[in-house]
Design brief:
Elements (H helix, E strand, L loop, with lengths): L2 E5 L3 H13 L3 E5 L7 H6 L2 E5 L7 H6 L6 E5 L4 H10 L3 E4 L4 H14 L28 H13 L6 E4 L6 H10 L8 E5 L5 H9 L16 H4 L4 E5 L6 H13 L1 E2 L8 E2 L3 E6 L3 H6 L5 H7 L2 E4 L9 H16 L6 E2 L1 H9 L5 H15 L4 E2 L14 H6 L5 H12 L5 H8 L3 H11 L15
Parallel strand pairs: 1-2, 1-3, 3-4, 4-5, 6-11, 6-12, 7-8, 8-11, 13-14
Antiparallel strand pairs: 9-10
Helix pairs in contact: 13-15
């Protein structure tokens, strides 16, 4: 874990800096000024985050004391002169107050990445909370996750398209945010769209926008998400669910950088970096004709595969502890600990929902816990059996899961996703999430809404 020395004279500001950094997965050492920091403590730090009022002497002199350690300056009264003086004195970045957690963490990650000394000890988390996230998916010291971190560090500064593979709940969106936050586009927007959560007939106007009169429901026309991401990053989650017509339009944007709104006659140039994610085997889907081959090869410039939680060894303990700390803090129960039995159950369970399921189980246990120790039963998991449709079917019971699977499989060729969800009494998003959990791929139905002209 990288260690960050926080040097800030104001106690409240120092607490805020430390909280952001700890939530970001860093170890933190505090000091009120550079004059109180021992040389040994400074030499052991991987980076310094310093407020402008930390030194008894001039700020450039204080920055100079950090020697080879990269320094990020957080300025209370930011000025151009102060920024120039800080950078000339050796600071790697200069952040004015008020600042967001993502700005601070992005600056620290950039400092660590650019400094050879700091790269000795890669952070155990990459951009977990760079975008203000509170979930602990990106924590990990397993070999599989170290490879992921290394790949993120290599590809993030480029403009290459990235295809993220991984089961539901493994943190694909967090990886996308890390890639954006560590890129040269981090000052621009990152725009996200879950392709599985929007009806087919609405995806194209949502992505590409539409001209006035192209949609009966909107006669004014508006830009789409690709235009909103111009200069930044577009993240398309579950891209395997993108309709083929939209695939063709997306391919043109990637090939030529040209965008034409639905119903429009003119094109405009856009500069967008695409990051896509899927839990499906896109290569197999391409062979079966469900995905355009030319688009697949355009997407698969750099592949990044996230391991499921069951393949991450001791990471599950780190993740559970991080989730417990986060949930306890949010619910004002800071003294909670896991019992040995709960820890054992967490290690034995296969977590088919991956980190998202683990986080939900921990949060549920924190809510229900009356004492200071979380026992195994509060987690509501059965580590003795492999959960899922197969286990339920083995019990011979006509469970709700059995009914859901049977109803979807029997009716998905006749109803749209919206109709299926309505008849099941659940939301469209819930239908999609259950499909992922039970491994029931969505089939494209022939029933679609009217296509915009």
């Amino acid at each position: 874990m990288n260690r960050i020395l926080v040097v800030e004279g104001d106690a409240e500001h120092r607490r805020q800096l430390c909280r952001f950094l700890i939530d970001g997965g860093f170890g933190v050492v505090e000091a009120t000024s550079f004059d109180t920091v021992a040389a040994a403590s400074l030499s052991e730090a991987d980076a310094v985050v310093a407020g402008t009022a930390t030194s008894l002497g001039p700020e450039p002199e204080a920055i100079g004391r950090a020697a080879e350690v990269p320094v990020v300056v957080v300025a209370g009264d930011a000025t151009i002169a102060g920024a120039v003086a800080s950078i000339r004195a050796g600071a790697t970045d200069y952040i004015p107050r008020p600042y967001a957690a993502d700005a601070l963490l992005a600056a620290v990650y950039a400092a660590l990445k650019s400094h050879p000394r700091a790269r000795r000890k890669p952070a155990r988390t990459i951009a977990k909370s760079v975008a203000g996230a509170t979930t602990p998916e990106m924590i990990g010291t397993s070999e599989a996750m170290r490879e992921v971190f290394d790949r993120i560090g290599k590809v993030a500064p480029t403009d290459s398209t990235v295809l993220i593979h991984g089961e539901s709940g493994t943190g694909k969106e967090l990886v996308a945010r890390a890639l954006h936050s560590l890129s040269t586009r981090r000052e621009a927007a990152m725009v996200s769209l879950n392709c599985a959560a929007i009806p087919d007939a609405l995806i194209e106007p949502e992505l590409f926008g539409h001209a006035p009169g192209a949609l009966a429901s909107d006669g004014t026309g508006r830009g789409g998400l690709i235009e909103a991401a111009d200069g930044g990053t577009l993240f398309l989650d579950e891209i395997g669910e993108l309709p083929r017509d939209a695939q063709a339009r997306l391919l043109r944007v990637l090939q030529d950088g040209e965008l034409r709104r639905l119903g429009g006659t003119s094109t405009r140039l856009v500069d967008v970096r695409l990051i896509a994610a899927t839990h499906r085997d896109l290569e197999a889907l391409t062979r079966e004709g469900g995905f355009r081959e030319d688009l697949y090869y355009r997407l698969d410039v750099v592949s990044l595969r996230l391991p499921p939680l069951r393949d991450r060894g001791d990471d599950v303990t780190l993740l559970a502890q991080a989730a417990l700390a986060s949930a306890s803090r949010r619910m004002n129960k800071p003294e909670l600990v896991l019992s040995d039995a709960a820890d054992h159950a967490i290690r034995r369970y296969r977590w088919p929902g991956n980190v998202r399921e683990l986080e939900n189980a921990i949060e549920r246990a924190v809510i229900l816990c009356d004492g200071s120790v979380i026992e195994a039963e509060l987690l509501a998991i059965d580590a003795a059996e492999d959960l899922g449709a197969g286990a339920e079917a083995a019990n011979g019971a006509d469970s709700l899961t059995d009914y859901f699977m049977r109803f979807v499989l029997e009716n998905q060729d006749h109803f749209t996703e919206t109709e299926l969800a309505h008849r099941l009494g659940i939301s469209r998003k819930s239908l999609w999430e259950r499909r992922q959990r039970l491994n029931i791929p969505r089939r494209r139905t022939r029933k679609r809404g009217p296509r915009p002209r």
